[in-house]
TrEMBL record:
<feature type="transmembrane region" description="Helical">
    <location>
        <begin position="139"/>
        <end position="159"/>
    </location>
</feature>
<dbReference type="GO" id="GO:0006605">
    <property type="term" value="P:protein targeting"/>
</dbReference>
<keyword id="KW-0282">Flagellum</keyword>
<feature type="transmembrane region" description="Helical">
    <location>
        <begin position="6"/>
        <end position="25"/>
    </location>
</feature>
<comment type="similarity">
    <text>Belongs to the FliR/MopE/SpaR family.</text>
</comment>
<feature type="transmembrane region" description="Helical">
    <location>
        <begin position="171"/>
        <end position="197"/>
    </location>
</feature>
<dbReference type="InterPro" id="IPR002010">
    <property type="entry name" value="T3SS_IM_R"/>
</dbReference>
<feature type="transmembrane region" description="Helical">
    <location>
        <begin position="37"/>
        <end position="57"/>
    </location>
</feature>
<protein>
    <recommendedName>
        <fullName>Flagellar biosynthetic protein FliR</fullName>
    </recommendedName>
</protein>
<dbReference type="InterPro" id="IPR006303">
    <property type="entry name" value="FliR"/>
</dbReference>
<keyword id="KW-0975">Bacterial flagellum</keyword>
<keyword id="KW-0812">Transmembrane</keyword>
<keyword id="KW-1133">Transmembrane helix</keyword>
<feature type="transmembrane region" description="Helical">
    <location>
        <begin position="217"/>
        <end position="242"/>
    </location>
</feature>
<keyword id="KW-0472">Membrane</keyword>
<keyword id="KW-0966">Cell projection</keyword>
<keyword id="KW-0969">Cilium</keyword>
Length: 254
C-alpha cells in the first residue's frame, strides 16, 4: 500500500507510547536520540504495510494533536501490560529480600534507572533473558500492528470491560509475586521458627548472630533449587500476560 503521512504520524504516536512503558524499549541504557530514530524507522516501515483506518478526518491541527495523544495512550497501555509482568517479578524479589535481610541492599536497574532489591534484580535479569528469548519484544510490535484491526484512529473505547481487565491484570501481578516468592519465604519462615525453638532450648546461643547468615544461606539454597521451576513458570507467566494484552486491546476497540 502507498505511504500515507497521516498513517505514519498515527503509528509514530502509538509506537512512542510503547517505547515509554514497555520493558526493553524503555531502557535508559539506550540514548534518546537512538530511540527516536528507531521509532521513526519502524513507523515509516509500518506505514507502508499496516492499514490504518480513521474514524474522523484529520483536517485541522486540533484533531491531529488529539489523535496523537490517544495513539500515545494506546501504545502506552500495550507496553504497560508487559511492564506489569516485570513488576510482579520485582515485587517477588522484594518479598524475598525482606525475609533474607537484604532490604537495605539495593542495586540500580539499568533498564529503568531506579533502585530495586537484590533478589528482585536477579530474578528480573533472568526474566528479561527469557522474555527476549521468546521474542516478547517482537510480540509487542506485532500487538501494535494488530491493534489497528480493533482500534482505528480516534476509535478508542474505554468501557467497563477495559477497566475490569486492568484491575484483573494488576491483581494477577500480586498473585504471581506471592507465588514466585512463596518457596523462599516459607523456607526462611521455617528457619525463623526453628531458630526460635533453639533460642528457647539453648539460651546461651546468640540466635541473632547465627540467624541472619543462616537465613541468607537457606534463601540462596532454596532459590537455586527452585530456579528451574522459576524459569518454567516465567514462560507461563509471559504467555498469560500476553493473553491479557490481547483481551485489553480488544476491549479498547469499538
Amino acid at each position: 500500500m502507498p505511504f500515507a503521512l497521516e498513517g505514519f504520524l498515527m503509528i509514530l504516536g502509538r509506537l512512542s507510547g510503547l517505547f515509554i512503558s514497555a520493558p526493553v524499549f524503555n531502557s535508559r541504557q539506550v540514548p534518546g536520540t537512538v530511540k527516536v530514530l528507531i521509532i521513526v524507522i519502524l513507523s515509516a516501515t509500518m506505514a507502508y504495510f499496516v492499514p490504518v483506518s480513521f474514524l474522523v478526518s484529520l483536517d485541522n491541527p486540533g484533531i491531529i494533536i488529539a489523535a496523537l495523544v490517544v495513539e500515545i495512550f494506546i501504545g502506552f497501555t500495550i507496553g504497560f501490560v508487559a511492564y506489569i509482568a516485570f513488576a510482579a517479578i520485582q515485587l517477588a524479589g522484594q518479598l524475598i529480600d525482606k525475609q533474607m535481610g537484604f532490604m537495605i541492599v539495593n542495586v540500580v536497574d539499568p533498564q529503568s534507572g531506579t533502585s530495586i532489591p537484590l533478589m528482585g534484580n536477579f530474578k528480573y535479569i533472568i526474566a528479561l533473558l527469557l522474555y527476549l528469548g521468546m521474542n516478547g519484544h517482537h510480540y509487542l510490535l506485532q500487538a501494535i500492528v494488530q491493534s489497528y484491526q480493533f482500534i482505528p484512529v480516534m476509535g478508542l473505547n474505554l468501557g467497563a470491560n477495559f477497566y475490569n481487565l486492568i484491575i484483573e491484570t494488576t491483581v494477577y501481578m500480586f498473585v504471581v509475586a506471592i507465588k514466585i516468592a512463596a518457596p523462599v519465604v516459607m523456607a526462611i519462615l521455617i528457619t525463623d521458627v526453628s531458630m526460635g525453638f533453639i533460642a528457647r532450648t539453648v539460651p546461651q546461643m546468640n540466635v541473632f548472630i547465627v540467624g541472619l547468615p543462616l537465613k541468607i544461606f537457606m534463601g540462596l539454597v532454596i532459590l537455586l533449587m527452585v530456579l528451574p521451576v522459576y524459569i518454567w513458570f516465567m514462560g507461563i507467566l509471559f504467555a498469560r500476560f500476553f493473553e491479557y494484552l490481547d483481551r485489553i486491546i480488544f476491549s479498547m476497540g469499538l
